[in-house]
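hey team, just a heads up i'm posting the complex here instead of the shared drive bc the drive is being weird again. everything in one block, sequence lines first with there labels, then the predicted structure for the whole assembly after. its three chains so it's a bit long, scroll down
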Amino acid sequence: MSFFTRLLRSPEGAFGMIILAALVLVALLAPILFPGDPLRIAGPALLPPFSDPALPLGTDRLGRDVLAGLMHGARTSLTVGIAAALMAIVLGALVGTAAGFAGGLIDEALMRVVDAFQIVPSFLLALAIVSVVGPSLPVVIAAIALGAWADPARLTRAQVLSIRERDYVAAAEVIGMHPLEIALKQVLPNALPPVLALTSVIVAAAILTEAALSFLGLGDPNVVTWGSMIAEGRNVIRSAAFLSIAPGLALVVTVIGVYLFSEALSRVIAGGRARP
Amino acid sequence: MTEPLLEISGLSKTFVSGGRRVSAVESVSFDIRPGETVGLVGGSGSGKSTLARLLLRLTPPESGRIRFEGKDWLDLSGNALRRARARLQMVFQDPLAAFNPRATVADVLMDPLRIHGTVVPAARPKEVERLLERVGLPSALAERSVLDVSGGQRQRVAIARALATRPALIVLDEAVSALDVSVRRKVLELLVALQKENGLAYLFISHDLAVVRAVSHRVLVMDAGRIVEAATASRIIEDPQSDAAKALVRAVPKLESENDAAT
Amino acid sequence: MTDLLATIRRLSVAYGDVDAVRGLSFDIRLGERLAIIGESGSGKSTFARAIAGLLPPRASLSGEMDWPCFGRPPLPGRDLGFVFQDPGSSLNPVLTIGEQIAEGARRHLGYSASEAWQRARELAGRVYLPQPDTILNAFPHQLSGGQKQRVAIAAAISSRPRFLIADEVTSALDMVVQAEIVSLLRRLVAEDGMTLLFITHDIALASSFADRIVVFRNGELVEIGAAKAVVSRPADVYTAELIAGHIDFTTPRLVEDMP
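-- predicted structure starts here --
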């Protein structure tokens, strides 16, 4: 059975996949269905939802189209989530691999750096970096990734240390394989699957961190994000609660989707090791 | 008398475990001549597997000398060591653990051929077929995953991998202990046939003196890191000197039929 | 019928579409040492677990098992003791040796903590664990493989079961320790009058101390009989192959001595 069919067979996997696929579709279609800047004024201010077929979810305080904002916001959330997670995993895997293979003093030094990043709450770290360097999408992504790479680094190191001791690594050494080839062909492909399973958890956390930064006004001001929409709606939360609830719901559904998907993914990876 | 292929003298290794120094191998000395099988027998914890790892340079020794094919084996490093490894190979106990779980049988055999340039690249698939044939496996097995072949077949693949680089000596570390009885006999026969064909020497490591007796020209008994007895199998079985050898002789279960006196 | 411990009729166990054992019918006699012999994939371990009620939930079991001597299926831990192949994973790493041996006596014999500890001390002596007082307070990782298996045996018999199942208990051990464990089992079974089901791949080991031998192949029974009779006159080709495959000091050698 292929990886994907196994993933889809579990209810979590199927549900998570549906949510994520819908989200990706929305993000891809946003510029086609709602061309132009989603931050421009599209109609009268504070138009309630379902009252104008041209603006199905109404408008905010400045007369911006809420549906367009939600759809373009999905782009930002997914971009930040995926980019930050990829950065964190790549950085973590590299550092973890280096520490696991080098051992000794290099291992000690690298792991103390990992400790340092692990004890600083990742949100505070992101907050500090963005407020010092300035809010733009690449900075936000880097700031979130720096708060998230410590876990993958630790897991990669532990995996490398355990797989290095296997007989097949000794066997590769005995046939005269170069240490670099042993690392890349024998150890890493078997060490990384559980680390990759961390990706989706990091994606979900990154999406939430980005939303929180935007909520505090530290997101990129030139793109629309769910966090900034919630912050914007907060000013009129008594009269137009919908403006905060809609992006909030989008956020909740996205994070649930990512978590369900990651749950199914780790189960498939864990199951794939014990052969039927 | 021929020049020894392998000469080990005063080889020692201690491990530090929980603050205590545990001597795993203690001033071990012995020779192996070309084309002979030296059996190394001992219980678990006797140090025989550590000795194998020292010999294969998987663990650095603390002191001692190893001469292999006239060269100082412990002085080799880097590329020179990797090239020299072609002549000294190993077969592990657990055939499943000794292969990358992602590999096919062909991958396993291609690696040594590529690393040592044993044959030109174009001839490699043919050589894989030839290696499989030599260990009594069908060439169709090449494309199978190492996880999809039986235990006995897997150990034959491991032997083929060790043969690929045309070694002079193969260390067999409990190489038949995990195999079913019906398969074990055939693998032992294969090893002896390969030895006669190629003049291979073996260091045959096992905890089973009966199996060691069947395939070894000479036998070393190891206990608590030391070689406590070195003789032919017949001598050790008829007249064991050390306590370790006596225990090993006693431990071999005998098939008891109706002709035997009841115990 | 009281001389029977169990009667097994048409017992089959399947995992999904794959039959692990098929149509087994034989009796286990009270007080006998019965060896089940088979190679990997013969279903011998599945059978042991089926008998002990230790099959995983996904296994489906059919056929009949009657227990004339208990009058009901035996309770694992109380009526039967089970010793597994790998003592490294069958012992709990965070409990002391004493706690693990005492567990059965506390749970099934209603012993108090101090009585159970006393029982653990006595058992540690019976399985020849050195320095019982030190070892009862030690943890499994501090013991050698052979010592761990002695602990596992002590724990299995701590509730005084009438039936002991030993599933490949010596395959992870070296020959010398194997011989010690087998002679220990032989003595314990004789002293306590237990029935022993001894699962092994080694027909010589089985012949050296079982009363009767059952040979399994691919999930089916190929032969059953008195141990020495089976070894002397195997009725099945496969049993003959197993006997021929055995290597001891009388087996013809493949190479000669070369001093």
